[in-house]
Amino acid sequence: MRSKHTFQATESAGDVSAVLVRPPAARCLYVFGHGAGAGMHHAFMEACAGLLADRRIATFRYHFPYMEAGRKAPNPAPALVKTVRSAVATAETLVPDLPLLAGGKSMGGRMTSTAASTGSLGSVRGLGFFGFPLHAPGRDSSERGDHLGDVGLPMLFLQGTRDKLANLDLLRPLLERVEPTPTLHVVDGADHGFHVLKRSGRTDAEVLEELCDTFAEWAGRIL
Question: Structural domain of residue 52, as residue ranges?
């Protein structure tokens, strides 16, 4: 089942669009935020929603206000965090019978973890990240992950070895200091968008299957 929805992101930003995909016999719902440069209808988001549905995981994708308005520059972080909280609250209302997970692709994931680090994120039981953006390209730092120690929920990090926004030599020791210990799944040869080179002998589609298999297995363990 696929249905369209709107909800108020923030009082000043107004309503944003959302899409709920609920497969038969769904076992949980993932509140799935998009990355900075592309909205909830991006091919990666669509593909993941479909593959997760095949694994009985429902998804609630939504737009951040700037994307809804057709702008390129993201809103300030406080507005993005408020949107995450509004999305989770809306998902809880729409699907009250399923346990909740939350997170997203790149920025959508980081804004979700930021929200969770500053207070309870509703009934969310765990956070899953498709390419956590630890730093800007070429500006290696772990500062953007300092808040992860305040989340206090099970977390899954799906990361590529060629991701220029997450130096694994910085991410690994950062996660070792977090409780409960997060799950880190590394995809050899994948970049921030989880694209792999032809010489890897794998296709992007195969990588997406691996990502969603890993997400589904993790969800089954923590719920």
Answer: 2-222
Kind plus residue range of the DSSP H or E element containing 171: helix 168-176
Q: Is 13 helix (H, G, I), strand (E, B) or coil?
A: coil
Question: Quick check: helix, strand or coil at residue 113?
Answer: helix
Distance separating alpha carbons of residues 53 and 70, to the nearest angstrom = 28
Sheet of strand 183-187, all strands in order from the earlier edge strand to the far edge: 2-10, 14-21, 57-62, 28-33, 100-105, 124-130, 155-160, 183-187
CATH number at residue 54: 3.40.50.1820
Task: Report helix, strand or coil for 4.
Answer: strand
Distance CA 51, CA 196 (A): 19
111 within 8 A of 85, measured Cβ to Cβ: no
Instruction: Give the pair of three-digit tokens for residue 210.
Output: 């691996």
Q: What is the DSSP letter of 76?
A: P
How many structural domains compose the chain? 1
Closest CA to 174 of 210, 132, 216: 132
The residues, ordered by sequence, that sit 6+ positions from 152 with a Cβ below 8 Å of its Cβ are 116, 179, 180
The DSSP output letter for 75 is P
pLDDT in tens, 35-73: 999 999 999 999 999 999 999 999 999 999 999 999 999
In tens, the pLDDT along 161-206 reads 999 999 999 999 999 999 999 999 999 999 999 999 988 899 999 9
CA distance 135 to 151: 19
Q: Cα(3)–Cα(66) distance, rounded to whole angstroms?
A: 22
